[in-house]
Design goal:
By secondary structure, the protein is mostly helical. It has a domain of 62 residues. The longest helix is centred in the middle third of the chain and has 38 residues. The chain is elongated, with a radius of gyration of 25 Å. The N and C termini lie far apart (59 Å).
Length: 98
């Protein structure tokens, strides 16, 4: 019996040809070293972009907090910590984001 990724709920191999074809293609993809290398490179780039986006978001929030604190707008600051839409509006108002 060949290794099968897809199983029915009762643990048996799939009976339909479509499920068998899918199972075979998944195994081929998992064993393709070039594809795996490309996928991992792509995933690493996505992770890097995600981290950069989070860092930029933190910097923008810090800029907003500094602006509100310097103007002693404590109520706006407090509201911006719990209302993301309001926070975005303030960032646009202070030209932190477009």
């Amino acid at each position: 019996m060949a290794f099968c990724l897809c199983t029915n709920f009762d643990g048996r191999e799939p009976e339909s040809q479509l499920a068998k074809d899918i199972d075979r293609k998944v195994l081929e993809a998992r064993n393709n070293k070039q594809w795996r290398r490309e996928y991992m490179s792509y995933q690493m780039e996505l992770d890097k972009q995600f981290r950069n986006g989070r860092e930029e978001e933190r910097r923008n929030i810090n800029k907003l907090n500094k602006a509100l604190l310097s103007e002693k707008k404590y109520e706006e600051l407090e509201k911006s910590t719990s209302d993301e839409e309001y926070q975005r509006e303030l960032m646009k108002k202070y030209k932190i984001i477009e």
